[in-house]
């Protein structure tokens, strides 16, 4: 759980400035970083009251000196005229996003010859199916003409 601290609230927003609350130092991850904490949306206190709080939890174990990062919202940077940038430093690193996986148009299909799985390019597979269908269709037409 969290703790409730005295703050100056405005329009229901909790402002931790001027308190000892660690959340005021948690940054928004940059484009190559990922959050390691998030809000549970569990609020405490009254809207615009003297006391209030919002619970946060870590998503993964956080190593010593690692920055705490949580998502501020999709428009936060732009609304302030700030170019979104990575916030991690050598001394206080931020967790990095996993490298993007390039998606290829490949699927696993069973190979009729030996029952193993093989990776096949969908376009090539479609071409070979079309060619096979045409071959069988032409053979069927020839068989009907001969009969």
Automatic annotation (TrEMBL):
Highest rank taxon of the organism: Eukaryota
Stretch list, region Disordered: 96-116
Protein name: SET domain-containing protein
């Amino acid at each position: 759980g969290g703790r409730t601290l005295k703050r100056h609230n405005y329009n229901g927003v909790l402002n931790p400035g001027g308190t000892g609350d660690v959340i005021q130092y948690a940054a928004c991850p940059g484009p190559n970083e990922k959050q390691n904490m998030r809000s549970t949306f569990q609020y405490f206190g009254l809207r615009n009251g003297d006391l209030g709080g919002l619970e946060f939890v870590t998503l993964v174990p956080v190593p010593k000196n690692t920055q705490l990062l949580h998502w501020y919202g999709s428009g936060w940077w732009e609304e302030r005229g700030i170019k979104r940038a990575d916030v991690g430093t050598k001394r206080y690193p931020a967790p990095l996003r996993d490298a993007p996986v390039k998606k290829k148009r490949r699927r696993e299909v069973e190979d009729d010859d030996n029952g193993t799985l093989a990776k096949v390019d969908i376009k090539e597979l479609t071409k070979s199916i079309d060619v096979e269908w045409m071959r069988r269709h032409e053979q069927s037409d020839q068989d009907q003409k001969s009969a």
